[in-house]
Amino acid sequence: MKMPSQLLMVCSGVALCSLIISSSHAQTYASTGSTPCPGAGTLPSVLRVSIIPEDQTGFFLELLDALQTHTGIPYKVTNRTDLTNFGQQNADGSWTGSLLGELLADRADLVASEFTITSLRQSVLDFLLPLGSYQLEILANAQFGVNTSGLQYLSFDNADLTYLKNSKNPDYRAIAANIEAGRPASILSNDQAGQNAGIAKVLGGNFAFILSDRDVAGAVAANPGKLVRVPSPLGTFSWSVPIQPGSPFRVKLNVALLQLAEEGLLSALIAKHPEL
After folding, report:
1. How far from 248 is each of 18, 62, 64, 235, CA to CA, in Å?
2. Strand partners, 154
3. Which of 70, 121, 145, 156 could make an SS bond with 190 (beta carbons 3.0 to 4.6 A apart)?
4. Cα–Cα distance list, 39 to 20, 22, 27, 243, 251 (Å)
């Protein structure tokens, strides 16, 4: 995943926010957040982190270690194997049972996982500075393509599908409707096993899979002549780590991220983990 230019562009916004914490400008906003800069005061002694098993090793724990080194803030990780909802809002409008719901219920300060930044999520939560970006693309069977009758689209039940549903582009909404009509078989589990199952379906017939550009490129490279990348991405999105709205940790962690970026350590860490 490439480092986005936004990470360095927001430096002035975060610096401004940190400078005015004790001032009277209580309504000044950091450039990537939806809430005012947190007020002055003593930070909690420990950063409470919720995590899922697949993120327990690798990038996110290394990032937490680096942030602890730069801020002096210790963290405590809770493995949430019990949560089946990664980060979707429930039909009743609540976030109960999701990783993001742990932040809103004050059971965690931060979720150590890769979350697409969406307008819905940003309206109820904050995020640390963007750590990467991706393009949403379509993986198709080389024989069938995407212009054949009976084509079934596949997707994870995540922010990407929500984007397609809410898009003003009628073609994107049609893709979402196709996916919804094909439930439950058209929805894959949002993990490596689900991705492998989706790719296998595309290899075997008239299917197309909505994936990130990195995953599409990997699948095409692994199956030359059998799978193709459909031209024209569906959209470009940023991702980061969600944090409690108005968290007193947010400014300090963002300043540490900027320091890691300026030292070249953040880009090296991201490059070390091509799974991002």
Report:
1. 11, 22, 17, 33
2. 209
3. 156
4. 9, 7, 10, 16, 10
Amino acid 142 reads A
Query: What pLDDT, on the 0 to 100 scale, is given for residue 55?
Result: 63
**Smallest Cα–Cα separation from 210: which of 155, 164, 169?**
155
Q: Which residues contact 78 (CB under 8 A, 6 or more apart)?
A: 48, 49, 50, 51, 108
The whole-number mean pLDDT for each consecutive block of 10 residues of the chain, a chain of 276 residues, reads 40 33 28 39 87 77 96 93 79 88 94 92 95 96 93 94 94 97 94 94 97 96 96 94 95 97 95 84
Paired residues of 205 in beta bridges: none
Is residue 55 within 8 Å of 81, Cβ to Cβ? no
Distance CA 87, CA 239 (A): 13
Structure tokens at 154: 């596949």
- Residues with Cβ < 8 Å from 32, sequence gap 6 or more? 6, 10, 13, 127, 129, 130
Strand partners, 229: 139
The dihedral through the CA atoms of 247, 87, 65, 62 has a sign that is: negative
- 78 by Cβ neighbours in 10 Å (0-12 / 13-18 / 19+) ranks as exposed
* pTM for this predicted structure: 0.78
